[in-house]
């Protein structure tokens, strides 16, 4: 079973969330883009911290995949695909966030299965 605070995928999620959260301080954004990146970045980082603290929580990895997908489509949905820095950060971080969640799913499932046998 995975130990808490050791899974690299969840550390990557925390870093990606912080990068997205801080991007509006260095890239041109609209109000909508700024708040989208702040909220999604914070949610991604928080989900990463929760997954680090409780590696057997499988729903956290699914939530990570959903957040990555939302971040990826947000430049088109919110209308900031013409803002290069913000849009590319959203696209790249969105794909990496979803990929990290998908890669972490088997480990989370194994940790969860290990806990299920202890009841």
TrEMBL record:
Which source organism does the UniProt entry give?
A: Umezawaea tangerina
Q: Where would I find the SPW repeat-containing integral membrane domain in this sequence? A: 8-102
Q: What are the alphabetically sorted keywords of the record?
A: Membrane, Transmembrane, Transmembrane helix
Q: What is this protein called?
A: SPW repeat-containing protein
A Pfam match is SPW
Top-rank lineage group of the source organism: Bacteria
Q: Where are the transmembrane segments?
A: 37-58, 65-81, 87-108
């Amino acid at each position: 079973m995975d130990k808490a605070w050791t899974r690299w995928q969840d550390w990557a999620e925390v870093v990606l969330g912080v990068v997205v959260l801080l991007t509006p301080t260095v890239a041109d954004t609209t109000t909508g883009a700024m708040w989208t990146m702040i909220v999604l970045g914070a949610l991604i980082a928080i989900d990463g911290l929760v997954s680090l603290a409780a590696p057997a929580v499988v729903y956290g990895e699914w939530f990570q995949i959903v957040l990555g997908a939302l971040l990826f489509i947000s430049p088109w949905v919110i209308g900031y695909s013409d803002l290069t820095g913000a849009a590319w950060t959203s696209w790249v971080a969105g794909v990496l966030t979803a990929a990290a969640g998908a890669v972490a799913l088997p480990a989370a499932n194994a940790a969860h299965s290990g806990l299920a046998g202890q009841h």
